[in-house]
From TrEMBL:
<dbReference type="InterPro" id="IPR019135">
    <property type="entry name" value="Polycomb_protein_VEFS-Box"/>
</dbReference>
<keyword id="KW-0804">Transcription</keyword>
<keyword id="KW-0479">Metal-binding</keyword>
<dbReference type="GO" id="GO:0031490">
    <property type="term" value="F:chromatin DNA binding"/>
</dbReference>
<comment type="similarity">
    <text>Belongs to the VEFS (VRN2-EMF2-FIS2-SU(Z)12) family.</text>
</comment>
<keyword id="KW-0863">Zinc-finger</keyword>
<feature type="domain" description="Polycomb protein VEFS-Box">
    <location>
        <begin position="1"/>
        <end position="56"/>
    </location>
</feature>
<dbReference type="GO" id="GO:0008270">
    <property type="term" value="F:zinc ion binding"/>
</dbReference>
<dbReference type="GO" id="GO:0005634">
    <property type="term" value="C:nucleus"/>
</dbReference>
<protein>
    <recommendedName>
        <fullName>Polycomb protein VEFS-Box domain-containing protein</fullName>
    </recommendedName>
</protein>
<keyword id="KW-0805">Transcription regulation</keyword>
<keyword id="KW-0862">Zinc</keyword>
<dbReference type="Pfam" id="PF09733">
    <property type="entry name" value="VEFS-Box"/>
</dbReference>
Length: 109
């Protein structure tokens, strides 16, 4: 994925995943009977914040690891310089989508 795609107004795959995570979390929070709607909203906002912080920390960890052997004055590697192999991830997502499309209510994996 190019940097321009990440910064564009359109939805990236990560944004769609975040929307799915939000939906699933709201569904789970809806099952709490002894929690007010305001408390549920706060928990949802907090968990969303934490999810985004984890993503940022993951990128910072990758960048720190890539730059650990750099000497003073050398150009550091940035997020734009990091390339990820997508073939394996794409195969995994295709498998998960296929499995989900064939599943029935109550199936366990």
């Amino acid at each position: 994925m190019e940097l321009e795609e990440v910064l564009s107004e359109g939805h990236s795959e990560d944004e769609v995943d975040d929307e799915v995570a939000d939906f699933e979390e709201l569904r789970r929070l809806g099952n709490f009977d002894n929690v007010t709607n305001a408390e549920k909203k706060f928990m949802h906002m907090w968990n969303s914040f934490i999810r985004k912080q984890r993503a940022v920390l993951a990128w910072l960890s990758i960048i720190a690891h890539r730059n650990k052997d750099m000497k003073a004055g050398e150009k550091l590697i940035s997020v734009a310089d990091v390339e990820c192999e997508s073939e394996g991830a794409n195969k995994m997502v295709a498998y998960l989508r296929e499995t989900a499309s064939k599943s029935k209510t109550g199936d366990k994996f």
